Amino acid sequence: MDNNFSLSTARSMDTSDPLYNLRKRFNIPMFKGKEAIYFTGNSLGLQLKNHSIYLHQELKDWQAIGVDGHFNAKTPWFDYHKCLEKSTSTIVGAKKKEVVTMNGLSVNLHLLLTSFYQPTKQSYKILCEPHLFPSDLYILQSQIKLKGYNPKDALVFLPSDENGVVAEDDIYKCIEDNKDQLAMIFIGGVNYYTGQVFNLEKITALGHKYDILVGFDLAHAAGNIELKLHEWEVDFAAWCSYKYLNSGPGNVSTIFVHEHQIKKNPFRLSGWWGHTFKNRFSLQTKFKPIKTAEGWQLSNAPIFGMSIYRASLDLFDEIGMKKIIHKRINLSRYLEQAIHLFNQKSTDVKMKIITPGSAENRGGQLSFLISKRGKEVYTFLRKSGVYVDWRDPNVMRLAVAPLYNSFEDIARFYNLLLNAFEK
After folding, report:
1. Which of 9, 113, 214, 278 could form a disulfide with 207 if both were Cys (CB 3.0 to 4.6 A apart)?
2. For 399-411, what is each residue's pLDDT tens digit?
3. CA separation, residue 353 to residues 115, 194, 335, 395 (Å)
4. DSSP code per residue over 146-211
5. Structural domains of the chain, ranges and CATH numbers in brackets
6. What average pLDDT does range 283-299 have in this prediction?
7. Burial of 373 (0-12, 13-18, 19+ CB in 10 A)
């Protein structure tokens, strides 16, 4: 089986991969004159070589016509967000009117929770997963306090094993057990720590059975797994654009609000960019929201960041999520096989995959529990030009991004690891 991870075998697999040449469109970090092995696309995606194709135009329009760019730029800034609607809605399985790009992710989650977390004396609790990303936890805690409740009482965490993995049946049992007190279910579509993919369709359906609102943080899901937010009738969601969507550090976020919720016209924090188009610039005394997800906008669009996002979305439009997911499955399976083979050969360090599910049923991330010498393993890899992520006390996260990762990346990783600890 060692031959499966020879560089010649991996390169042959890459040659047969119809998406392999996409890698050439990205700037791969270099290490000692060679391309580094980059497995941290779940944290920050790599830069497209043509990332500035639209940015140059916006800078040119700003230089040439100044404020007139709001209406007379090649892509007018007044409604620049609309040029992202088709692509972002396709990636998550939504209608165009259900999505809008604005702000950063945490800001957007606060805006959505302000609208949709409406606790009552009877139903005030929020169900979430363990190992919730700290920012999400802080957001939930502060929103609960804002509405006059105690987070220690109002937050319900799903039960998990010692690694933070949740058994699927426990999710549904927990919803059933708390159905009378839950105002909301709020879960990361893919858990950032374990890489666990949750069944969003079933969770949403069960929540709705008991009139519980259901929302998701899709930071680790968008551009990674198949999503059908409209069909699944998810109430709301948000995601960043800089992980699997490769738009650059800290760049803009997109929100989803199901059309059923839009029609209800819930309370929201209001700003002028969410006001109806025709008189947005006129002196007004009453906020009249656009009757789409755009009505959640506050400020005018950050054009430069959106332009880079737009360039990345063009690539997703060109390839399509179906092909991207197909390659992700193959890469993830190959990485899993590499870890299993390493464990068979290593007489010292062992790596236990804690991410549940088969390659078909998970995303690009695999989280490993390292038996011992974990920091040593991590430090060795980083010093060898491998980009991986460490989480205390002993978990390492690797993610394969189908647009630029290769089978050769995985074979090089395997051989580095094996040679280092078998000397």
Report:
1. 214
2. 999 999 999 999 9
3. 38, 9, 11, 10
4. HTT--HHHHEEEPP--TTSPPPHHHHHHHHHHHTTTEEEEEEESB-TTT-PBP-HHHHHHHHHHTT
5. 2-47+320-421 (3.90.1150.10), 53-319 (3.40.640.10)
6. 91
7. middle
